Every structure is written in C-alpha cells, then in structure tokens.
Amino acid sequence: MCNTEGKTFAVSQFPWSLAYEDGTRIKVTGLNGGDLPKPEFPTIGEAVKQGDCVRGKIPYPVPGDKRPARIVYAPEALQEPLDWVVPAG
Fold first, then answer.
1. Residues 49-71 pLDDT 10s
2. 29 phi and psi, to 5 degrees?
3. Residue 34 has what pLDDT?
4. What is the largest CA-CA distance in the chain?
5. N or C: which end of the chain has fewer CB within 10 A?
6. What does the angle CA 13 – CA 49 – CA 55 come to, to the nearest 5 degrees?
7. Nearest-CA neighbor of 82 among 12, 22, 21, 17?
C-alpha cells in the first residue's frame, strides 16, 4: 500500500478480509501469523507518509475445501469497502 495523497495515514491487517460466494467472510489471523512467510503486513496502525509504501503478507485461517471469491478492504475511513476478485487458478 503506497501513499500518494499527501496526508499521513495508518495501515494495518485488520481492515482486510476474504469473502466467499456463500457470504462467509474470513478475518485475518491477527497478531500471530504463526509459521507463515515473512514479512507480515503491519498488525498495528503503522504511519505511512507521502511517498512511502508498506508491503507484507496478511495471514488468514483459510479452510482447505473452499476458495475465496474476493479480497475485501474495509477501513472505517471508507464509506464503502473496496474489493478485488480472486482469479481462478
């Protein structure tokens, strides 16, 4: 996530979730991603100044028999969530 707006803002894992066709939503694992690859996306609000970027992995407890349909980003500052379709594959 990169800041091109000019105002400093905070980012964390918690506004992100996975959405399934049946309406199920999976929230992030949280403060302990376990044995997942590093680096993890910040777990607490990390300030991102103009021109800076933050990257990392976000862990989810994904059921083995289901595939997410969308990735959802819903921070409190947005009136409506943003989402991206998970490509088949």
1. 999 999 988 888 888 888 999 99
2. -65, -35
3. 63
4. 43
5. C
6. 40
7. 17
